[in-house]
Design brief:
Blueprint: E1 2-6, E2 13-18, E3 29-37, H1 41-52, E4 60-61, E5 70-78, H2 84-87, E6 95-103, E7 114-125, H3 128-141, E8 143-144, H4 157-160, H5 171-195, E9 207-210, E10 216-218, H6 224-231, E11 235-241, H7 251-261, H8 265-273, E12 279-282, E13 284-285, E14 288-294, E15 298-306, H9 311-316, E16 319-320
Length: 331
């Protein structure tokens, strides 16, 4: 495991959204490509709303992005008196508009294919041979797809609200607290499967996920083809995003999920009370296009992740650093 310093400067952590689609070219919205530095997404949203003359809730964005970083992300604003050419000239101390095009609809949360990362680790203590071997292993096997600590709020604030119950939560709080409740149960089940080694292999009774997609299917029998596809990171076992009822898994997997969920009665009850359905999330995260290079006093790591995953979890497998808990990215 390497040791080093992360986020010494915002330029040491660069994240860029990959929407997976382009602007429609017409419509009642403007799709903006924005570069921000040392600023959180919601602050940028408020600033754009002031420029546009609209309410912040009319601004669309796919996900929150890191504050102490360089983040390039897409947002939509309603059509206004500002022309596309004017939008393209917007330059503020902490953000700038790189592109502006007409678009047909407000950008919803989660509407992106993935994120690309460039991370610089300074004062690093690791031999090249050891680092190269670790990078190769992660490329081949992926990493456990845990939710990062930021999902649980600063100092676990979202977890602390679970016991209050649904009625005590303000509307703007509910999504964060429900998400934390589901993430807590998922992480516990993933931790158990990481301990027994089944986080990266399918077994009968599992619900499999097709990499990079929402497609899932039950594993009724396990043949060589399924095993090979799992080894190639094309398929992954999944864990539950808790909701009402029981997960659709069977046999040992079902027993494991039920046993661990029983240890979290309040989070499970909260999601059921909210009417949330049982959903699935891959237990394993494939790390694509993972490369590294050495600079004079640092190493630079580049990789691509699918939406909804956390760069923190990749970096945890490579470097020890106190800054790992600071990431805000949730898409």
């Amino acid at each position: 495991m390497a040791r080093g310093t992360l986020r010494a400067e915002p330029e040491d952590f660069v994240v860029e959204e990959d929407l997976g689609f382009g602007p429609s070219g017409a419509g009642q919205h403007v799709l903006l490509k924005v570069r921000k530095r040392n600023a959180n997404t919601q602050w940028v949203v408020r600033e754009l709303a002031k420029i546009c003359g609209c309410h912040p809730r009319d601004i669309g964005y796919a996900g929150l992005k890191d504050r102490r970083a360089i983040a390039i992300q897409w947002l939509t604003v309603p059509q206004s008196r500002l022309t596309l050419d004017v939008w393209r000239t917007v330059r503020e101390p902490d953000f700038e508009v790189l592109e502006a095009d007409a678009h047909s609809r407000k950008l919803p949360r989660g509407a992106l294919a993935g994120n690309r990362f460039m991370v610089r680790i300074r004062n690093v203590e690791v031999e090249d041979v050891a680092l190269a071997a670790r990078i190769a292993e992660i490329s081949r096997r992926g990493v456990p797809n845990y939710f990062g600590p930021q999902r649980f709020g600063r100092d676990g604030a979202n977890l602390a609200r679970i016991a209050d119950g649904l009625r005590a939560l303000r509307p703007q709080e509910r999504g964060f607290v429900l998400s934390a409740a589901r993430s807590l149960v998922f992480n516990a089940i993933l931790a158990e499967r990481a301990r027994d080694g089944s986080w990266e292999r399918l077994e009968v009774g599992d619900i499999a996920n097709l990499d990079g997609r929402g497609s899932i299917f039950p594993v009724e029998t396990l043949d060589q083809t399924l095993s090979e596809r799992c080894e190639q990171l094309d398929l992954h076992p999944t864990g539950p995003m808790w909701g009402k009822g029981a997960p659709p898994t069977r046999l040992r997997v079902s027993e494991l999920e039920a046993r661990l969920a029983a240890e979290f009665p309040q989070p499970c009850a909260l999601t059921a009370e909210a009417g949330m359905e049982q959903e699935r999330r891959a237990l394993r995260l494939a790390v694509r296009e993972l490369t590294w290079e050495r600079e004079a006093a640092a190493i630079v790591i580049r990789f691509r992740l699918m939406r909804g995953s956390f760069a923190t979890m990749v970096l945890h497998e490579i470097v020890e650093s106190e800054a790992l808990a600071d990431e805000d990215n949730d898409a």
